[in-house]
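User: I'm writing a short report section on ligand binding and want a predicted complex to refer to. Could you take this sequence and zinc ion and write out the structure as tokens? A short remark afterwards would be nice.
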Amino acid sequence: MALEIYNTLTRKKELFTPLEPGYVGMYVCGPTVYSDVHLGNCRTFISFDIIYRYLKYLNYKVRYVRNITDAGHLEGDRDEGDDKFSKMARAQKIEPMEIVQRYTLGFRDVMQLFNTLPPSIEPTATGHISEQIAMTQTIIDNGYAYEKNGTIYFDVEKYNAEKPYGILTNRKLEDLLEGTRDLDGQDEKKGRLDFALWIKAKPEHLMQWPSPWGMGFPGWHIECSAMSSKYLGKQFDLHGGGMDLAATHHTNEIAQNEACFHKSPAQIWMHTNMLTVNGTRMSKSLGNGFLPHELFTGAHALLDKAYSPMTVKFFMLQTHYRSTLDFSNDALQASEKGLKRLWEAYENLQKMQYTLGEINVEIEEKTATLIHGFDESMDDDFNTAKVLANMFEIVPIINSIKDGLMPIGSISQNTFALLQTKMKSYLEDVFGLIPAQESNNNNLANVMELLIDIRKEAKLKKDFATSDKIRNQLSNIGIVVKDEKDGSVSWNIG
Ligand SMILES: [Zn+2]
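Assistant: Sure. The structure tokens for the complex follow:
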């Protein structure tokens, strides 16, 4: 079997054939770094990390570009209002680039906690202003954009007369127009669906650059066209993002690239689905939106306890990326238990020594089929959920061997070796799960609790030699123990 990927553009699974054999170019719309990354975005980036890892597992040379939006993203996703960075910067009386720096680092920290790989290139919108200006100029020269008072608009109706604007979400222009408000007489746009490629800046606007049309800043959509074409060429293999980006942002990207290069940017468009909480759509306004650190600390009204990054990631992988994913305490707890059970079996499996025995044909065939199912499931539009389901069928086989209920030789040597290597490749390389490290951190926390207890008892017995010894020796290895005013004891790795 070969890799098949669901293409939003054609609404079906397609056999994946890279434009250049052996190489894959993949672009994913990255975060807008004006606030903490929310969990819905994390799901998108984790999903594409797994896709990136699986393509590498298939021995493709992958160039994975994921941008950082640090300019041009206006509040209302329409062409009005202040940009999100300037608004935050004004509110906090700091520079917009301080906002960008803070949330870029925060985003990378979270991505690291989820053990995702950094993309090959992580370009920023502010680092590619001249490319965005050049592309806007070409679109004007080609006749698909017009200037109005220093702002450049894309002419959607003109474009749609030649190419279907709503092609990505399979909607006609008339239907799209129905969903938008009438232009009031003040509007600079010619058509209701026209969108800005470049926006004239008011003098007080905090982020602005010179352009052939005066001081301004780029529209949100043009950055992805400019950066994807710069690093991946005018046509590349895969373009991804959250499902909420398809109707406007990605639709506009296609129109911009067609208007500039007479080519559609990506062969295959991939979209990850939404998160829900207890069956309701996750959103900030409903107060049921989780930030990653709220899950990791359990500090949220809807959570009973904290869940580790690996549990959250494992929970996400148990659902296909194109399905909605429902968060609830019960579901997270089940995932936590499931991951523990799976990982224990995996660690036991890696320690086992094979000895020949009488092969049990039924178990042998079942095991081999389940292992081959890993690649088959991933080849079927990256079905991580199916791979994990197969693994959970393998767990009782491993446990039976470990508990001495079944001789290891019931499985052939080849199948056993394959089981060891495939479980390792999938859990560690393709899924990037590392619960072992977490348990090391938990072990440290437990040991520290014990040491702090012993020290407390020593102090109560006025055995200061022991209590000082514990504190000083911990200090020597870089762990600082601090007696707080309220009598509690804290520690950190200093
Ligand atoms: Zn984008």
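A remark for your report: The mean pLDDT is 92. The pocket of zinc ion is lined by residues 29, 224, 249 (CB under 6 Å).
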